[in-house]
Specification:
The chain is an alpha/beta fold. The chain has 2 domains: about 140 residues, Alpha-Beta Complex (Aspartate Aminotransferase, domain 1); about 250 residues, Aspartate Aminotransferase, domain 2. The chain is about 40% helix and about 15% strand. The protein has 14 helices and 17 strands. It binds ligand 7TS. Ligand 7TS binds next to α4.
């Protein structure tokens, strides 16, 4: 099942580039992935030969654009095994998907004294909307703690669920900092048994492993196209029965059935949640990204990344004083965040950039998690289908240079 990485890289035009005279070693796919030619081509095709607004025109071009847009939705639905396409809502990104739930579901269902439970390993996109909802409603926001090993402390969960006050549990399917893959299906079972709904942030997992929303245990799941070889669009998947009960998030054209001077009726799913003209070419581009990833095979991508992350953690242990945060390679996806006591992560990233290596440095939009590990920031290498062990070797060489320049 091993991937033919040179053949995959050949499909990403960006890898023809040199950075500071060096081969590009792109290790920041957790922030956003690079784009393969078929995705670029699909979008150029729309803009050059097939563009019109959708769901309204009665001419050929508009009908073609509408069909291509809806075809892309169907591809995404199959990719995550949604029971029907009406459950797949096109949004701007994972962040907007989570905000949609916080407003449309949260406004109607969270009341004073209720509790919302999230985890200490969340991205800000899965923290701040719940903070704001809790504040608006006089609800409590509680956290499932993270252990020193970077795992969820599940022993605490019953105490957060037992009194029946918890109405919503939101958790990441994979941490963007630790790489941890929490037992989300188990967490969902506990949450459901306590009468709470479950929101999963799958921004770091849908791009890297196959996900079946019919067995995952989520009631809602959000992810972003730009992290999975696609353009800047996002998807919110939700259970049809819940989506049907909810009020719209944004109001305007396309999301209505009829509008009278004083009242309107909402369109059917998924259009009720897609107000205004969407990012048409981008949605079609996401369909092409799904085809691209499916053509390679999610199982093969996953296996490839598991091999790289094990190799990376092994090789990073050679760098003096470098500390990796998070669990061992079998319990994480292809993300490794680390800390070098002698060098600020920003300096690490700047020195690696001289070698053509792109890593992210900072808090990676997960400040509470960095607080929990008592570090202000970290450097992070994240891997995808176009990386290989040689990229890891170049990274380790670059880190030795960092230690030579800045180490004690
Ligand atoms: N959830 C997780 C787990 C993420 O990693 C990110 C983005 C988001 C949500 C938000 O995605 P967006 O597309 O709505 O912005 N994570 C990162 C990152 O790790 N570095 O840059 C963006």
């Amino acid at each position: 099942m091993s991937l033919d990485v040179p053949a995959i890289r050949a499909q990403f035009p960006i890898f023809e580039r040199k950075i500071n005279g060096k081969r590009l070693v792109y290790l920041d796919s957790a922030a956003s992935s690079q784009k393969p030619q078929p995705v670029i081509d699909a979008m150029v095709q729309v803009w050059t030969h097939g563009y019109a607004n959708i769901h309204r025109g009665l001419y050929t071009l508009a009908e073609e654009a509408t069909a291509a847009y809806e075809d892309a939705r169907a591809k995404v639905a199959r990719f995550i095994n949604a029971a029907d396409v009406g459950e797949v809502i096109n949004v701007r990104n994972a962040t907007e998907g989570i905000n949609l739930i916080a407003y449309s579901w949260g406004e109607a269902n969270i009341h004073p004294g209720d509790r919302i439970v999230i985890t200490e390993m969340e991205h800000h996109a899965n923290i701040v909307p719940w903070q704001a909802l809790a504040r608006r409603k006089g609800a409590e926001l509680a956290y499932i703690p993270v252990t020193d090993d970077g795992l969820l402390d599940l022993d605490v969960v019953p105490s957060l669920l037992d009194d029946g006050r918890t109405k919503l549990v939101a958790c990441s399917v994979m941490s963007n900092v630790l790489g941890t893959l929490p037992p989300v299906t188990h967490v969902a079972e506990m949450a459901h048994a306590a009468g709470a709904i479950v929101v999963m942030d799958a921004a770091q997992s849908v791009p890297h492993r196959s996900i079946d929303v019919q067995t995952l245990g989520a009631d809602f799941m959000a992810f972003s196209g730009h992290k999975m070889c696609g353009p800047g669009v996002g998807i919110l998947w939700g259970r049809r029965d819940l989506l049907e009960q909810m009020s719209p998030f944004l109001y305007g054209g396309d999301m209505i059935l009829t509008v009278k001077q004083q009242e309107s009726k909402w369109n059917e799913l998924p259009y009720k949640f897609e107000a205004g003209t969407p990012a048409i070419a981008e949605v079609i581009g996401l369909g092409a990204a799904v085809d691209f990833l499916s053509g390679i095979g999610m199982a093969a991508i996953h296996e490839h990344e598991q091999q790289i992350v094990a190799y990376a953690m092994n090789r990073l242990s050679e760098v003096p004083e470098l500390e990796v945060i998070g669990p061992g390679p079998t319990e994480r996806g292809a993300v490794v965040s680390f800390w070098l006591p002698a060098a600020h992560p920003h300096d690490v990233a700047a020195i690696l950039d001289e070698e053509g290596i792109c890593v992210r440095a900072g808090h990676h939009c997960a400040q509470p998690l960095h607080d929990r590990f008592c570090i202000p920031a970290s450097a992070r290498a994240s891997f995808y289908l176009y990386n290989d062990n040689h990229d890891v070797d170049v990274l380790v060489e670059g880190l030795h240079k960092v230690v030579r320049l800045l180490g004690r």
